[in-house]
């Protein structure tokens, strides 16, 4: 396998089925082995671990059912398909994992209060080593397939396998400790195993719920979308990029800015090019909204605007102002300009000045974003340049 993520629905389902059936069959065999040996040597940690393995059979079954449902086509009640069933499957797996962990903690505490003898021999040790290696292989196999098809459900199943491999090590330690008379070690490590299980469960629950609630897309995906969009000629800007994920399927909506002089046919062509490029590059459906990229130049606004002139002139601290710049885009309107003040004005004084000035201007230009830049004047500036909008005081 290479590192390229597989997006084809049929191929993803095939990989998921392979992972699920290997998990079901492999875990059934390991469960039988562990439960038999656990009962023979009277080890609560091994018995607990065997049922942990049994839950892996259930989780692999959830993967199987989840992917089967996620393949169902869109219908009237589910216009975007059933892809989020993968996230539901992940949530179910995580909840099952948490239930097992809580039950094992309860049993382990009971054994601490009433310690019991745990037997063991080289055959049991060999069994634990063998099953531990098998579970770690299954974990790596599931992680690899999960990464290959970008599936949280398979990653969740992989964590089930790996936590089982870790518990094998802990159970092995417990059995060795019991051979030397430290019987409580078995119960203590049973608690450790349970906490590991619960920790993994909480992590998976948070992840799956986050996806179901509409988790924000990864930053690298947004960057990839922007690169794709700006690769199309005539695109002047892009904003309000939204990504809706439904399992393997993604729906992207965004606004692109084009020159206001383009006609309808040309603008439609640009939008279609963006949608097609996103589909071929990211394998996602896209809905593109057209916005006009427009700018009102300074000449479009009277530089000697009486309202602004009156407001700014009311501040004796301001020697002059210049660079009056009104900008209007689909993102909103803004006003930028520079004010010239005496060089010995403190930072606090300049901050208060800008705050008061901004407040007064906002009363007149309520929907504008106001950006004021402060410049100190020098002796040679007293005469004011031709760009000044107010003569020096």
Nearest-angstrom radius of gyration?
A: 33 Å
Roughly what fraction of the amino acids lie in strands?
Answer: 15-25%
Indicate how many domains the architecture comprises: 3
Q: Give the rounded overall mean pLDDT.
A: 78
Give helix % range: 55-70%
CATH arch. level architecture of the largest domain: Up-down Bundle
Low-confidence stretches: 296-304, 381-387, 389-393
Say which CATH homologous superfamily of the largest domain is assigned: Cation efflux protein transmembrane domain
Largest pleated sheet: 3 strands, mixed
Distance between the first and last residues' Cα: 75 Å
What is the count of β-strands?
Answer: 6
- CATH first level of the largest domain: Mainly Alpha
Number of helices: 10
Category from helices, strands and their pairing: alpha/beta
CATH topology of the largest domain: Alpha-lytic protease prodomain-like
Neighbour order of strands in the largest sheet: 1-2-3
């Amino acid at each position: 396998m290479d590192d390229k993520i597989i997006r084809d629905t049929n191929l993803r389902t095939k990989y998921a089925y392979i992972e699920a059936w290997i998990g079901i069959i492999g875990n059934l065999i390991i469960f039988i082995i562990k439960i038999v040996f656990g009962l023979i040597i009277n080890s609560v940690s091994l018995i607990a671990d065997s049922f942990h393995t049994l839950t892996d059979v259930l989780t692999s079954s959830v993967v199987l059912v989840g992917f089967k449902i996620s393949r169902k086509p869109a219908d009237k009640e589910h216009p975007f398909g059933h892809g989020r069933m993968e996230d539901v499957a992940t949530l179910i797996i995580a909840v099952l994992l948490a239930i097992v962990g809580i039950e094992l903690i309860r049993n382990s505490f009971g054994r601490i209060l009433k310690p019991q003898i745990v037997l063991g021999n080289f055959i049991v040790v060999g069994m634990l080593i063998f099953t531990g290696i098998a579970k770690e292989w299954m974990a790596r196999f599931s992680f690899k397939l999960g990464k290959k098809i970008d599936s949280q459900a398979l990653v969740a199943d992989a964590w089930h396998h790996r936590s089982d491999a870790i518990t094998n090590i802990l159970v092995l330690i417990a059995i060795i400790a019991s051979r030397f008379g430290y019987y409580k070690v078995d119960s203590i490590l049973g608690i450790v195993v349970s906490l590991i299980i619960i920790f993994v469960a909480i992590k998976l629950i948070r992840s799956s719920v986050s996806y179901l609630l509409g988790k924000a897309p990864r930053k690298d995906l947004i960057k990839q979308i922007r690169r794709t969009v700006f690769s199309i000629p005539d695109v002047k800007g892009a904003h309000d990029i939204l990504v809706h994920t439904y399992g393997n399927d993604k729906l992207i909506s965004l606004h692109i800015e084009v020159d206001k002089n383009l006609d309808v046919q040309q603008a439609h062509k640009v939008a279609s090019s963006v949608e097609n490029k996103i589909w071929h590059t990211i394998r996602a459906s896209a809905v593109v909204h057209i916005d006009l990229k427009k700018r009102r130049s300074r000449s479009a606004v009277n530089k000697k605007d009486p309202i602004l002139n009156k407001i700014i002139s009311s501040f004796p601290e301001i020697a002059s102002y210049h660079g009056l710049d009104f900008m209007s885009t689909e993102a909103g309107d803004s006003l930028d300009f520079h004010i010239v003040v005496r060089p010995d004005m403190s930072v606090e004084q300049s901050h208060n000045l800008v705050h008061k000035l901004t407040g007064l201007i906002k009363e007149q230009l309520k929907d504008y974003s106001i950006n004021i830049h402060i410049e100190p004047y020098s002796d040679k500036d007293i005469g004011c340049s031709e760009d000044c909008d107010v003569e020096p005081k």
